[in-house]
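Quality-control log, excerpt.
Job 1 of 2 completed; input and output follow.
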Amino acid sequence: MFTAPDSPYLVAADEPFDSAAAPTAPPDDTAQKKVLKKRLAEAVERLSELQHILYAHDHHAVLLIFQALDAAGKDSTIRAVLSGVNPAGCQVFSFKAPSAQELDHDFLWRCAMRLPERGRIGVFNRSYYEEVLVVRVHPRHLASQKLPKDCLDPESLWQERFESIRDLERHLARNGTVVLKFFLNVSKQEQRRRFLSRLEEPEKNWKYSQQDVEERQHWDAYQQAYSEMLPATSRPWAPWYAIPADHKPFMRLTVAEILLGSLESLDVAYPQVTDEQRERFDAMRGMLG
């Protein structure tokens, strides 16, 4: 079963984690932006090669989950890291507020319906983790989930959801899916700067959301929710990485290198051609003239 590559940003399972104290900026010795961008381009090229092999081998799937506070850079990171991947081998799903149909199922259902097939890379821009983040910060959302009263015990609800998530991800890992989870950790000051740029720069006005700004008022509650959720659901076969998000080139490269290291650790290769198939090749050459 897949085991997570090491990283200074790996969240250890069941060990204390303070989201508010985790780094949001890269190390002081980080290379210049142009160097980071060059390294990212090289990583993207290699990812493209490995994705072709993953697709041809057809025994593993990869699931990338991105969670973050607003304006941390989820969309741009997904775009930058997967820019060289064949669209036929990649699926990206963004999860917004659940629909009426989705609310008639358990909280994992809508994401489980969109898991990647073998040979493909699936990306969840937000995920079932919203159910232990947004819903925990705003428990009024539980009312629309139509849960029986005995399932709403606040003393056990969140721990039971953590358990359900761990069970799902272990099941996926046992069946060949590589699960990598990235918490893009942006500082409150940088989030403010990015929100202001959305107001002040015309080409970014479309990104502005009053709801995003209003959610900022719950900053401390989200930090607490992340601090509990990350170590409770980070496991060697489905790790969380808390990536500093104030510096986008560093963040993107870090995500790409973790993904690259994970793919390189898999025992995947192009399918071997048998002698019988080679004989058929010779026959096909003759038919082609």
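Job 2 of 2 completed; input and output follow.
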Amino acid sequence: MPELDHVQPAQPWQRGELEELQRRSSEVWPAYREQLRANPDAIFVDPELIAAGCVRVAYDHNGDTVGFSCTIPHDDGAGGYDLDGLFVDPLEFRLGIGRGLIADATTRLRRLGGTHLTVIAGPEGKGFYERVGFVEIGPAQTRFGSAFRMHLDL
């Protein structure tokens, strides 16, 4: 069973690899498969966010990429961040990679003075976010349907 070995900032040359991982991770869910094919622009890792250090990549003990996250500071100056993306290779689901990426984000954001982390979770991801400490704070809407706005105090 692979284990998360380390997490570090993404490099610009990894963008294509991360977008392919995002696609594989997202297309696992039948409800999204057709929507993603109809909206190919939904699979996108912003190179500016990579350059800013917002995208973090998880590696297993073999050095293989197994997941990534993206956190973006809120514009309100209150220490909040958005978890803009969390994707794990589907072959690595339920092995602690997502949990490790959340732990990396919370540790790093606390050091940066962060106070809270929010995420918009679809129905498929809500249980995961609850298990790692997020609480639902209200409904949300995405272009793919209804979702949940969730919050984690740092």
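Post-run check on job 2. Residues 4 and 60 are 5 Å apart (CA to CA).
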